Amino acid sequence: MRSTQRRLAALLGIAAVVPLAEVLVLMPSGFVTAKGLAPQISAVWPYDSYHDMRWLLVYHNSWLTFWAGLLGAILLRGVLSATLVGLAWPARVPRPPYRALLRRNLEVAALGAVLVLPFAAYSVAASVASLSWFLFASLVPMVLLAPFLQRMSVGRGLWRGLPSAELVAWSLLDFVVISVAGGLVGSAPQALTPLVAAVAGAVNGLLWNRTVRAASSRNRCGGGGCRWCRSWWCWPWPSR
Question: What is the DSSP string of 113-175?
Answer without folding.
Answer: HHHHHHHHHHHHHHHHTT-HHHHHHTTHHHHHHHHHHHHHTT-GGGSSSPPPHHHHHHHHHHH
